[in-house]
Amino acid sequence: MLTRLLMRLFVVASTISIVAGLAFVYIDPPQGMRVTPDGVPLLSPPVIHPATGEAIPLEELVRNFKGGR
Description:
Layout: H1 2-27, E1 47-48, E2 55-56, H2 58-66
Antiparallel strand pairs: 1-2
């Protein structure tokens, strides 16, 4: 009887913590999950330019393929 009650309490506590954690991440996402208006993650590393071999920001590469601004 006590074991069944403790298991139910554990399941309820686990469910509440999972729902609360997902709600927190959805409402205020961590810095690593944030993106620019073009959909590029803010903390993305530079990429290598195929022609010159130099490192360019990923945002610049995306703007180039989208038609620039």
